[in-house]
Amino acid sequence: MKNITDSFLSLGYWSSAGSFGFNTDILATNPINLSVVLGVLIFFGKGVLSDLLDNRKQRILKTIRNSEELREGAIEQLEKARARLRRVEMEADRFRVNGYSEIEREKWNLINSIYTTLEQLENYKNETILFEQQRSINQVRQRVFQQALQGALGTLNSCLNNELHFRTISANIGMFGAMKEIK
Q1: Is 160 strand, coil or helix?
Q2: Other CB atoms closer than 10 Å to residue 111's CB: what's the count?
Q3: Residue 92 to residue 79: CA distance in whole angstroms
Q4: What is d(CA 1, CA 56) in angstroms, rounded to the nearest whole number?
């Protein structure tokens, strides 16, 4: 066995017991070095890594809480906007219904007003026609009366002479005197 041990020592796989040196065998030294490095990293880096992870966790939780608050605020604003939309739609429907009924009412008021105005105009027209007829009849009567009076005066003037005129006056005076006696 000594030969095997010497052969390992002579090849450089194992260093001699009292000296310090580098082991160039990668397959033999890698697991040891990795375990030592990982052990040191875990021992010293555990606190730093834990703090980093806790900070990251807190930031994630804070972001989630903020997102939840923003979501709740957005839902609340959405509900308010929907309620306002419903109120505006109801008010628009009310205005639409009131507007249509107001338009219909104004239409009938206008129709009634026009009908009343037409009746008044018809009455004024009939009154004007009646007035003009009466005035025309009165003018015709006056002309007929004037012509009849002129014709009677003309007949009387042509037929009456002094003697006839004297007898007519006497007869009228006689009739007037007879009337006084009756009373």
Answers
A1: coil
A2: 10
A3: 19
A4: 58
Name, in order, each residue with C-beta under 8 angstroms of 8's C-beta and a sequence gap of 6 or more: 14
Nearest to 156 by CA among 173, 168, 170: 168
179's tokens: 């009337």
Integer CA distances (angstroms), 98 to 48, 86, 106, 107, 150, in order = 73, 18, 12, 14, 76
The whole-model pTM stands at 0.36
pLDDT of residue 4: 45
Side chain identity at 154, as an amino acid letter?
G
Instruction: Give yes or no for residue 26 having a pLDDT over 90.
Output: no
Count Cα neighbours of 163 within 13 Å in the Cβ-side half-sphere: 0
Region 71-96: mean pLDDT is: 92
- Contacts for 16 with CB less than 8 Å, ≥ 6 apart: 9
- With cut-offs at 50, 70 and 90, classify the pLDDT of residue 6: very low
pLDDT digits (tens, 9 = 90+) for 117-164: 999 999 999 999 999 999 999 999 999 999 988 888 888 777 767 777
Lookup: tokens for 138: 């009165």
